[in-house]
Design brief:
Radius of gyration: 19 Å
Oligomer: single chain
CATH topology: Rossmann fold
Number of helices: 7
Helix content: 25-40%
Strand order of the largest sheet: 5-6-7-3-8-9
CATH architecture: 3-Layer(aba) Sandwich
Number of domains: 1
Length: about 280
Amino acid sequence: MSGQLFPLIARSPLNFVIQGVVRIVELILKEVTFRYPQTRQLIFSRLSARLPVKGFNAIFGLSGCGKSTLARLMAGLEMPDSGRIQLLSEGPDHFSGREPKILYAWNGERLPGWQQIAEHFHQVAPETQFQVLDHLCRWFDLQDLATQKFGSLSLGQKNRANLIRYLVQDFDLLILDEVLANVDEPMRHRILALLKTHFSHSNILYISHSALEVAAFARNIFLLPPSAGSSGCSEIKLVKGLNLSEISSEMMPELQDGMVELLRLASGLSLTRNENGRIASSG
């Protein structure tokens, strides 16, 4: 019997692997300072970091620490008050004179409620991606909803549909901000396993409040400390994830230890695992 906690055998095999166009090495933040207009509170204050964003990585931290703001700055949806953000790729030519394409998907994104799913997918996907689109619809259990309008979908179905429409586009870096928040856990883990195996050559930055998902699937975890109040965040800790492609029962002890360490660093509290395996504060 397999030790895999969320088996993939219910899904037919997928025979594609997405090839990344550009192999990204680092995302550099240099002296980045940011506050939202008409507010006094700094979100980031002279934040500098070199983040290895090649492959599947994650941003983690407690609510209000600035995860989404950092992601929006990376994607160019917000501009820093000072400092710069730069994406570097392998090779001397970097992006061959073009701007890197960074896509940002988030949980509360509005979908065209009046439009059929299939119609919208075929509008946003290059024709070369139509076969991949078909595979993803089957894998995400949306194949029978192709003629449905977005407005008729459940929140979990909308999350899955929204993710698909980003995966079939061209990108150098795809930032996923709580995009699976309303998806049930077994399906979430199947989707994350698919991203690790079939999009292994793509660069994906995943944001989630799930310490288990982040610790298990991410190669690198960019940890934001608790909110620094009016002084703003000035550092990002780099934590190594387990970089798994699936969660198995054999890996649970190591995974639980990783979750404890991740939550300890994120909260600033002294956390331990008791004899029952539960996480508790020892302070």
